[in-house]
Amino acid sequence: MDRKTYLDKIITEFENWWVNDQHSSNMDFYKNTITFSYLTSLSDNDFMNFFYTFVSEGGRVQSGGDRKKNQFRATVLNDIENFRQYVVKPFQEKFSLKDWFLQVDKYTGFGVGIATIFLNRVDYEKYPIMNNKTLKALKKLGYKISSSKNWTNYELVKKYQDNLITDFPILKNYYKADALNHFLVDVYLGQELILDYLQIETFENGLEQNEIEQKIEADSENLDKQDLYDKILDCQNDNSEKVLIKGKIYKRYNYLMVQIKKYRDYKCQFCPTRIKKANGNYYIEACHIKAKSEGGQDSLDNILILCPNCHKLFDYGYREREKHTKDKYSVFLNGKKYETGLK
User: Fold this and answer.
1) Nearby residues of 315 by Cβ (< 8 Å), 6 or more positions away
2) Which residue among 43, 134, 139, 198 sits deepest, i.e. has the most Cβ atoms within 10 Å of its Cβ?
3) What confidence tens digit (pLDDT) does each residue in 81-98 have?
4) Is residue 14 part of a domain?
5) Domains contained in the chain, number
6) pTM exceeds 0.85, yes or no
């Protein structure tokens, strides 16, 4: 099953979940209250109470608002008139989304997550939501985006969710597209489906790495450790996503993983295992210490080379007391200590 087909499956399962989940019934919850006429009609006290509840409940989209509600109240009470003017700007004809977004930091407790939820409640056909869950889910789907909740990423969220809505019209709008993020990150079925989806990509990357390995085998035989190290640094500092190897284009990531595996002599960094294949080459797996979905980089100091058993232990075992520097990594997995060099 290819990735496009599997993404179809994810969307189908999401839709089955959506029709029975509270997210669908909450989609128009603020339809009659987050309007220009309603918000401007409120007294200062009612206005404050409305937004205090909105922040507390995370706009009925995200959790965590309860921790920020008192901080938010103190900020707004300090200058309620300016905040009133700020929140009605999205209803005005000459509204500048970028200017509005860049002023969010002025209102402590009304962060980017809840602010973009508010925008989405103003018009879910125009404004996407961006919070930690959004960024994590998009990265899991293979979109290139950092963990920063800044303006650049907000534009990327809109672009990527436009792509999803175009490919899967059943998503309809940015509110429902955001519910997909929740499904993938916080719902067990979605988590399992995205793991399977990522395994398809891992399998395809493995096939490509094998092909790259065979193509560069003769060229890399005479490289010493320092030569390999220099090639790895050059590759990880290259911002391009593709590389050309003997007339064929490959993912730069897969080329980098091949070089790191060779640099570490195809040997598991947690145990002495070295798996020799029938063709005389060696099998080993690469994994990120800090996951890419959490901002981890494709770099020598964030990659472990592990045998399949240790890889699964690292992914699924109980992990504690991690220490991670550019040169070393140590961790307790299911109570046993593992440590290795990274340079």
Assistant:
1) 287
2) 134
3) 999 999 999 999 999 999
4) yes
5) 3
6) no
